């Protein structure tokens, strides 16, 4: 089954390919000739995911899915949330998708905070056979005071999932995918698609 994943993020594409396995042929935006920057202007993860999926359906006529992920930190009232990828940019501290600047700012804002609990939440919006579906994956954890590990991407070096003594960036990809927010949402997506 051929599916379009509305992303230009090679890390995400690779991660979701590993999770979905061989039942699906997953292609990204560049594979369908989409090189424009799809707007993400909604106030919620659900809204952003739907906005991207609808854009691909409208402009390319293809069934597809899109995701949006937020890191929700309790001590920061759920921030960075919908602004996770652009956190530092919002404060004039870096460019869009600048992971190092994002982590630096996050750690700075948590310096004097006792509660470091956080969760990653992914919402996947699927447009398939004329219908829209949403799938959510959540993983609870905490933000460590410093970075650990070199695997993964984004905030992985500072996020330690609940029940583990390592960060996402210290886990082999297969282990992370089995428990991650994106992994959980993608499993729900796969179950839905395999049911036909």
Describe this structure in words.
The chain has helices at residues 10-20, 45-60, 87-90, 99-110, 173-179, 181-194, and strands spanning 2-5, 25-27, 64-73, 80-81, 117-128, 131-143, 159-161. It is an alpha/beta fold and 196 residues long. Strands 1, 2, 3, 4, 5, 6 and 7 form a seven-stranded mixed sheet that branches. The protein is globular. The termini are close together. The model has no long low-confidence stretch (mean pLDDT 92).
How large is the radius of gyration? 16 Å
Shape: globular
Q: How much helix, percentage-wise, in residues?
A: 25-40%
The fraction of residues in strands falls at: 15-25%
- The number of helical runs is 6
Low-confidence stretches: none
Q: Say what oligomer this is.
A: single chain
Structural class: alpha/beta
Termini distance?
Answer: 11 Å
Average pLDDT score: 92
Query: How is the main sheet built?
Result: 7 strands, mixed
Total E-strand runs: 7
SSE string: EHEHEEHHEEEHH
What does this entry show, briefly?
This protein has 196 residues and is an alpha/beta fold. Helices cover 33% and strands 24% of the residues.
Q: Helix and strand layout, with pairings?
A:
Elements: E1 2-5, H1 10-20, E2 25-27, H2 45-60, E3 64-73, E4 80-81, H3 87-90, H4 99-110, E5 117-128, E6 131-143, E7 159-161, H5 173-179, H6 181-194
Parallel strand pairs: 1-2, 1-3
Antiparallel strand pairs: 3-4, 3-5, 5-6, 6-7
Helix pairs in contact: 1-5, 1-6, 5-6
């Amino acid at each position: 089954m051929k599916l379009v994943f509305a992303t230009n993020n090679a890390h995400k594409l690779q991660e979701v390919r590993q999770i979905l396995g061989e039942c699906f042929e997953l292609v990204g935006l560049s594979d369908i000739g989409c090189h424009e920057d799809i707007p993400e202007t909604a106030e919620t993860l659900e809204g952003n995911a739907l906005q991207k999926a609808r854009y691909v359906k409208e402009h390319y006529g293809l069934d597809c899915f899109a995701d949006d992920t937020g890191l929700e930190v309790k001590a920061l009232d759920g921030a960075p949330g919908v602004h996770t990828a652009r956190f530092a940019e919002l404060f004039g501290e870096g460019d869009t998708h600048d992971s190092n600047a994002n982590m630096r700012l996050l750690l700075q804002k948590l310096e004097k905070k006792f509660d470091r609990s956080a969760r990653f939440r992914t919402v996947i919006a699927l447009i398939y056979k004329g219908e829209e579906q949403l799938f959510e994956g959540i993983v609870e954890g905490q933000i460590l005071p410093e970075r650990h590990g070199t695997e993964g991407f984004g905030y992985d070096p500072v996020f330690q999932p609940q029940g583990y003594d390592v960060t996402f960036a210290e886990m082999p990809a297969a282990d992370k995918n089995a428990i991650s927010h994106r992994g959980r949402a993608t499993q729900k997506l796969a179950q839905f698609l395999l049911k036909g």
